[in-house]
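Subject: design request, 272 residues
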């Protein structure tokens, strides 16, 4: 079991930001990834749909014999983490707790901004996680739904992206935040542009690094780290176009990846 893969899911390519950190911190671990690009974005959908898509994806990964599940999607974490922990016998990690922890460590003036999808912002999950550890925080949350489309289609630079990012972040002007949580795993792929708009006084927090640290901690504590000696063969599945996912994957991970098309809803259109 300790050499089994780690299952990672997202609504699309955003979860690759978490995979990159898992690879960096845990090079011996094999990753099995499911990206539900066909149904992306999750963030504009209602909670029941998000839950049913997420559980179908997690069931698929769990059926492949993974040793743990990582919900590399803030939207799915916000809606499903607690239920997922009760449903599976293997550990399930989300990205919101780790992101909140990293933001608290980074802020000096206790003014924290959060950006995420509509579903994540409406769930108030970041504010709850932040306030659980620290009471005296000023938190401003803004939904940036247009960012996911830019990332999924690879349009992360150029005038359109720059205008979209500047418009969406306008509510933070004059807010005095010194830390911004990128509360969607797609957003780190726009980080250079976000940093340009907010300037050098705002620290950007991606939960990827902290989430991979949680994975590492659990593996060590439970004596579940992989004993494999050679480079693991990572597998990526997408419900969308495998070719497109492979192009994006190589772009964001820096190496070619092995991608297969697989829709966990098996071509039935009940979930489209
Ligand atoms: N990557 C997902 C997240 O972290 C959301 C993107 C979507 O709306 O599907 O929230």
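Subject: RE: design request

Done. Sequence follows.
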């Amino acid at each position: 079991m300790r050499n089994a893969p780690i299952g990672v899911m997202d609504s699309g390519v955003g979860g690759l930001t978490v995979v990159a950190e898992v690879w960096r911190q845990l090079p011996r671990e094999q990753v099995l990834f499911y990206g539900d690009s066909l149904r992306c974005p999750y963030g504009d959908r209602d909670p029941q749909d998000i839950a049913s898509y997420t559980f179908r994806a997690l069931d698929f990964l769990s059926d492949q014999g993974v040793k743990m599940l990582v919900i590399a999607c803030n939207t799915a974490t916000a809606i499903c983490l607690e239920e997922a922990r009760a449903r599976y016998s293997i550990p399930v990690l989300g990205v919101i707790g780790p992101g909140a922890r990293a933001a608290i460590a980074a802020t000096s003036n206790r003014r924290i901004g959060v950006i995420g999808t509509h579903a994540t912002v409406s769930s108030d999950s970041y504010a709850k996680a932040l306030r659980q550890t620290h009471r005296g925080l000023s938190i401003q949350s803004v939904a940036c739904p247009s960012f996911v489309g830019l990332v999924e289609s690879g349009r992360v630079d150029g005038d359109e992206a720059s205008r979209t990012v500047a418009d969406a972040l306008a509510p933070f002007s004059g807010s005095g935040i010194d830390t911004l949580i990128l509360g969607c795993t797609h957003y780190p792929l726009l980080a250079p542009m976000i940093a340009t708009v907010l300037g050098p006084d705002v620290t950007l927090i991606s939960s990827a690094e902290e989430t991979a640290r949680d994975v590492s901690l659990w593996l060590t504590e439970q004596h579940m780290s992989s004993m494999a000696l050679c480079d693991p063969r990572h597998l990526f599945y997408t419900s969308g176009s495998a070719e497109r996912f492979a192009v994006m994957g190589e772009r964001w991970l820096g190496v070619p990846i092995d991608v297969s098309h697989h829709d966990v809803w098996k071509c039935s259109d009940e979930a489209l």
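The chain has two domains: 6-94+209-271, 96-207.
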